[in-house]
Protein backbone atom coordinates (compact mmCIF):
# COMPACT_ATOMS: atom_id res chain seq x y z
CA UNK A 1 0.00 0.00 0.00
CA UNK A 2 1.23 3.53 -0.69
CA UNK A 3 -1.13 5.04 1.85
CA UNK A 4 -3.48 6.77 -0.58
CA UNK A 5 -7.08 5.62 -0.15
CA UNK A 6 -8.92 4.83 -3.37
CA UNK A 7 -11.99 6.71 -2.14
CA UNK A 8 -11.85 9.98 -0.21
CA UNK A 9 -13.64 13.22 0.54
CA UNK A 10 -11.87 16.15 2.17
CA UNK A 11 -10.44 19.63 1.95
CA UNK A 12 -6.95 18.74 0.68
CA UNK A 13 -6.09 19.84 -2.89
CA UNK A 14 -6.41 16.97 -5.36
CA UNK A 15 -3.56 15.32 -7.24
CA UNK A 16 -3.85 12.67 -9.91
CA UNK A 17 -0.47 10.98 -9.58
CA UNK A 18 -1.10 9.29 -6.22
CA UNK A 19 -4.44 8.00 -7.50
CA UNK A 20 -2.83 6.67 -10.66
CA UNK A 21 -0.26 4.82 -8.56
CA UNK A 22 -2.98 3.51 -6.26
CA UNK A 23 -5.14 1.99 -9.01
CA UNK A 24 -2.15 0.74 -10.99
CA UNK A 25 -0.28 -1.05 -8.23
CA UNK A 26 -2.56 -1.85 -5.29
CA UNK A 27 -4.99 -4.64 -4.91
CA UNK A 28 -8.13 -3.46 -3.15
CA UNK A 29 -8.99 -7.07 -2.39
CA UNK A 30 -12.07 -7.06 -4.57
CA UNK A 31 -10.55 -8.63 -7.64
CA UNK A 32 -7.03 -9.95 -7.13
CA UNK A 33 -6.87 -11.04 -10.76
CA UNK A 34 -6.35 -7.41 -11.76
CA UNK A 35 -3.31 -6.88 -9.55
CA UNK A 36 -0.10 -5.23 -10.65
CA UNK A 37 0.83 -5.90 -14.27
CA UNK A 38 -2.69 -6.76 -15.45
CA UNK A 39 -3.52 -3.12 -16.14
CA UNK A 40 -3.31 -2.03 -19.78
CA UNK A 41 -5.03 1.34 -19.59
CA UNK A 42 -5.61 4.12 -17.11
CA UNK A 43 -8.05 6.97 -17.72
CA UNK A 44 -8.06 10.06 -15.50
CA UNK A 45 -10.68 12.76 -15.06
CA UNK A 46 -10.40 16.07 -13.23
CA UNK A 47 -13.43 18.27 -12.72
CA UNK A 48 -12.36 21.91 -12.44
CA UNK A 49 -13.97 25.02 -11.02
CA UNK A 50 -14.94 27.07 -14.09
CA UNK A 51 -14.99 30.88 -14.23
CA UNK A 52 -18.47 31.11 -15.78
CA UNK A 53 -21.82 29.40 -15.33
CA UNK A 54 -25.20 30.28 -16.85
CA UNK A 55 -24.06 33.78 -17.74
CA UNK A 56 -22.56 34.44 -14.30
CA UNK A 57 -18.92 35.33 -13.71
CA UNK A 58 -17.89 32.83 -11.07
CA UNK A 59 -15.35 33.92 -8.45
CA UNK A 60 -14.93 30.64 -6.57
CA UNK A 61 -16.85 27.58 -5.41
CA UNK A 62 -17.44 26.02 -2.02
CA UNK A 63 -18.28 22.36 -1.61
CA UNK A 64 -20.03 20.73 1.28
CA UNK A 65 -20.42 16.97 1.79
CA UNK A 66 -22.10 14.57 4.16
CA UNK A 67 -18.76 12.81 4.51
CA UNK A 68 -19.68 9.39 5.96
CA UNK A 69 -22.51 8.94 3.46
CA UNK A 70 -20.33 10.30 0.65
CA UNK A 71 -17.71 7.62 1.30
CA UNK A 72 -20.35 4.88 1.36
CA UNK A 73 -21.81 6.27 -1.85
CA UNK A 74 -18.38 6.32 -3.51
CA UNK A 75 -17.97 2.65 -2.50
CA UNK A 76 -21.37 1.92 -4.00
CA UNK A 77 -20.43 3.66 -7.24
CA UNK A 78 -17.17 1.68 -7.38
CA UNK A 79 -19.14 -1.55 -6.82
CA UNK A 80 -21.61 -0.67 -9.57
CA UNK A 81 -18.70 0.12 -11.88
CA UNK A 82 -17.01 -3.24 -11.25
CA UNK A 83 -20.33 -4.98 -11.71
CA UNK A 84 -20.77 -3.39 -15.14
CA UNK A 85 -17.07 -3.51 -16.18
CA UNK A 86 -15.53 -6.49 -14.36
CA UNK A 87 -11.84 -6.06 -13.61
CA UNK A 88 -11.93 -2.25 -13.58
CA UNK A 89 -10.38 -0.50 -10.58
CA UNK A 90 -11.66 2.88 -9.42
CA UNK A 91 -10.18 5.77 -7.46
CA UNK A 92 -12.44 8.71 -6.60
CA UNK A 93 -11.60 11.76 -4.52
CA UNK A 94 -13.89 14.76 -4.00
CA UNK A 95 -12.85 18.00 -2.45
CA UNK A 96 -14.77 20.03 0.14
CA UNK A 97 -14.44 23.64 1.22
CA UNK A 98 -13.29 26.48 -0.99
CA UNK A 99 -12.16 25.60 -4.51
CA UNK A 100 -10.64 28.42 -6.55
CA UNK A 101 -11.16 28.85 -10.29
CA UNK A 102 -8.99 26.40 -12.20
CA UNK A 103 -8.58 24.06 -9.24
CA UNK A 104 -9.92 20.52 -9.23
CA UNK A 105 -13.03 19.65 -7.26
CA UNK A 106 -13.12 15.98 -8.21
CA UNK A 107 -10.54 13.44 -9.40
CA UNK A 108 -11.39 10.05 -10.88
CA UNK A 109 -9.00 7.37 -12.10
CA UNK A 110 -10.02 4.07 -13.63
CA UNK A 111 -7.71 1.24 -14.56
CA UNK A 112 -8.52 -1.71 -16.74
CA UNK A 113 -6.79 -4.35 -18.87
CA UNK A 114 -8.27 -2.58 -21.95
CA UNK A 115 -8.80 1.09 -22.84
CA UNK A 116 -12.47 0.91 -23.82
CA UNK A 117 -13.51 -0.17 -20.32
CA UNK A 118 -11.22 2.38 -18.68
CA UNK A 119 -12.80 5.23 -20.68
CA UNK A 120 -16.39 4.09 -20.22
CA UNK A 121 -16.08 3.36 -16.52
CA UNK A 122 -14.43 6.73 -15.84
CA UNK A 123 -17.36 8.53 -17.48
CA UNK A 124 -19.81 6.33 -15.58
CA UNK A 125 -18.25 7.26 -12.24
CA UNK A 126 -18.56 11.03 -12.77
CA UNK A 127 -22.16 10.65 -14.00
CA UNK A 128 -23.06 8.68 -10.87
CA UNK A 129 -21.28 11.18 -8.62
CA UNK A 130 -23.48 13.89 -10.07
CA UNK A 131 -26.59 11.76 -9.55
CA UNK A 132 -26.18 10.34 -6.06
CA UNK A 133 -23.13 11.64 -4.12
CA UNK A 134 -24.23 13.75 -1.11
CA UNK A 135 -22.09 16.72 -2.13
CA UNK A 136 -23.25 20.29 -2.76
CA UNK A 137 -21.68 23.16 -4.64
CA UNK A 138 -22.15 26.78 -3.67
CA UNK A 139 -21.26 29.18 -6.42
CA UNK A 140 -19.90 32.61 -5.50
CA UNK A 141 -20.26 34.91 -8.48
CA UNK A 142 -20.08 38.65 -9.16
CA UNK A 143 -23.20 39.92 -7.45
CA UNK A 144 -24.06 37.08 -5.11
CA UNK A 145 -23.96 33.39 -4.35
CA UNK A 146 -26.23 30.44 -4.95
CA UNK A 147 -26.44 26.77 -3.96
CA UNK A 148 -26.47 24.68 -7.11
CA UNK A 149 -29.12 21.97 -6.99
CA UNK A 150 -28.98 19.14 -9.49
CA UNK A 151 -30.41 15.66 -9.10
CA UNK A 152 -32.58 14.27 -6.32
CA UNK A 153 -30.27 11.60 -4.92
CA UNK A 154 -31.80 8.12 -5.12
CA UNK A 155 -29.25 5.31 -5.39
CA UNK A 156 -32.01 2.75 -6.04
CA UNK A 157 -33.36 4.60 -9.06
CA UNK A 158 -32.45 2.13 -11.81
CA UNK A 159 -33.41 4.52 -14.60
CA UNK A 160 -30.76 7.00 -13.42
CA UNK A 161 -28.19 4.22 -13.30
CA UNK A 162 -29.14 3.06 -16.80
CA UNK A 163 -28.89 6.63 -18.02
CA UNK A 164 -25.35 6.87 -16.63
CA UNK A 165 -24.44 3.61 -18.37
CA UNK A 166 -25.83 4.87 -21.70
CA UNK A 167 -23.87 8.11 -21.41
CA UNK A 168 -20.74 6.16 -20.49
CA UNK A 169 -21.02 3.92 -23.53
CA UNK A 170 -22.10 6.56 -26.06
CA UNK B 1 -36.78 9.62 22.20
CA UNK B 2 -34.05 11.96 21.22
CA UNK B 3 -32.68 12.11 17.68
CA UNK B 4 -30.26 14.36 15.84
CA UNK B 5 -31.34 16.00 12.63
CA UNK B 6 -28.65 17.02 10.15
CA UNK B 7 -29.27 19.50 7.37
CA UNK B 8 -27.08 20.34 4.41
CA UNK B 9 -26.56 23.15 1.90
CA UNK B 10 -29.70 25.23 1.32
CA UNK B 11 -31.69 23.27 3.91
CA UNK B 12 -29.11 24.21 6.51
CA UNK B 13 -29.37 27.86 5.49
CA UNK B 14 -33.17 27.79 5.76
CA UNK B 15 -33.13 26.31 9.27
CA UNK B 16 -30.08 28.32 10.32
CA UNK B 17 -28.43 25.22 11.82
CA UNK B 18 -26.50 22.21 10.57
CA UNK B 19 -27.54 20.01 13.46
CA UNK B 20 -30.71 20.03 15.55
CA UNK B 21 -31.47 17.76 18.51
CA UNK B 22 -35.16 16.86 18.50
CA UNK B 23 -37.59 14.89 20.65
CA UNK B 24 -39.81 12.43 18.78
CA UNK B 25 -42.44 9.98 19.97
CA UNK B 26 -42.19 6.21 19.76
CA UNK B 27 -43.10 4.88 16.32
CA UNK B 28 -41.97 8.06 14.58
CA UNK B 29 -40.66 7.76 11.04
CA UNK B 30 -38.35 9.97 9.01
CA UNK B 31 -41.54 11.48 7.53
CA UNK B 32 -42.73 12.43 11.02
CA UNK B 33 -39.46 14.19 11.72
CA UNK B 34 -39.63 16.04 8.39
CA UNK B 35 -43.23 17.11 8.98
CA UNK B 36 -42.40 18.55 12.39
CA UNK B 37 -39.34 20.27 11.03
CA UNK B 38 -41.08 21.86 8.06
CA UNK B 39 -43.77 23.07 10.47
CA UNK B 40 -41.01 24.77 12.39
CA UNK B 41 -39.20 26.08 9.29
CA UNK B 42 -41.84 26.60 6.57
CA UNK B 43 -39.16 27.30 3.93
CA UNK B 44 -38.25 23.62 4.02
CA UNK B 45 -41.56 22.49 2.57
CA UNK B 46 -40.50 23.63 -0.93
CA UNK B 47 -38.09 20.65 -0.80
CA UNK B 48 -40.76 18.08 0.13
CA UNK B 49 -40.59 16.39 -3.28
CA UNK B 50 -36.96 16.94 -4.21
CA UNK B 51 -35.02 16.12 -1.06
CA UNK B 52 -33.54 12.78 -0.04
CA UNK B 53 -33.23 11.40 3.46
CA UNK B 54 -30.68 9.33 5.31
CA UNK B 55 -30.74 7.39 8.56
CA UNK B 56 -27.45 6.93 10.43
CA UNK B 57 -25.50 7.92 7.30
CA UNK B 58 -27.27 5.53 4.92
CA UNK B 59 -29.84 6.55 2.36
CA UNK B 60 -33.28 5.65 3.73
CA UNK B 61 -36.92 5.93 2.71
CA UNK B 62 -39.26 8.38 4.42
CA UNK B 63 -41.28 5.53 5.99
CA UNK B 64 -38.24 4.19 7.87
CA UNK B 65 -38.83 4.11 11.62
CA UNK B 66 -36.45 6.12 13.79
CA UNK B 67 -35.05 5.13 17.17
CA UNK B 68 -33.49 6.82 20.16
CA UNK B 69 -30.06 8.20 19.31
CA UNK B 70 -30.53 8.02 15.53
CA UNK B 71 -29.09 10.58 13.16
CA UNK B 72 -31.53 11.68 10.47
CA UNK B 73 -30.28 13.73 7.55
CA UNK B 74 -32.22 15.68 4.95
CA UNK B 75 -30.43 16.29 1.67
CA UNK B 76 -31.41 18.81 -1.01
CA UNK B 77 -30.75 17.85 -4.66
CA UNK B 78 -27.05 17.12 -4.97
CA UNK B 79 -24.50 19.00 -7.07
CA UNK B 80 -21.14 17.30 -6.70
CA UNK B 81 -18.57 17.01 -9.42
Q: What is the count of distinct domains of chain A?
A: 1
What is the CATH-assigned architecture of chain A?
A: Alpha-Beta Complex
Main sheet characteristics of chain A = 5 strands, antiparallel
Number of domains of chain B: 1
Helical residue percent band of chain A: 25-40%
Cα shape of chain A = globular
Would you identify the CATH architecture of chain B? Roll
Description:
In chain A, the strands form two sheets. In chain A, strands 3, 4, 6, 8 and 9 form a five-stranded antiparallel beta sheet that branches. Chain A has a four-stranded mixed beta sheet with strand order 1-5-7-2, sandwiched between helices. In chain A, a hairpin with a 2-residue loop joins strand 3 (52-53) and strand 4 (56-65). The radius of gyration of chain A is 16 Å and the shape is globular. Chain A starts with 6 loop residues before the first strand and ends with a helix. The longest helix of chain A has 18 residues, at 67-84. Chain A is of the alpha+beta class and 170 residues long. Helices cover 34% and strands 33% of the residues of chain A. Chain A contains four helices and nine strands, in the order βαβββαβββαββα. Chain A has one domain (7-169): Alpha-Beta Complex (Aldehyde Oxidoreductase, domain 3), CATH 3.90.1170.40. Chain A has helices at 16-25, 67-84, 115-132, 158-169; strands spanning 7-10, 41-48, 52-53, 56-65, 89-95, 97-100, 104-112, 135-141, 144-148. By secondary structure, chain B is an alpha+beta fold. Chain B has a single domain (2-75), classed as Beta-grasp domain (Ubiquitin-like (UB roll)), CATH 3.10.20. Helix content of chain B is 22%, strand content 28%. Chain B has a five-stranded mixed beta sheet with strand order 2-1-5-3-4. Chain B is globular, with a radius of gyration of 12 Å. Chain B starts with a strand and ends in a 6-residue tail after the last strand. The mean pLDDT of chain B is 98. Chain A binds chain B through residues 47, 63-66, 68-69, 72-73, 94, 105-106, 126, 129-138, 147-156, and chain B through 6, 8-10, 13, 50-52, 54, 57-59, 73, 75-81.
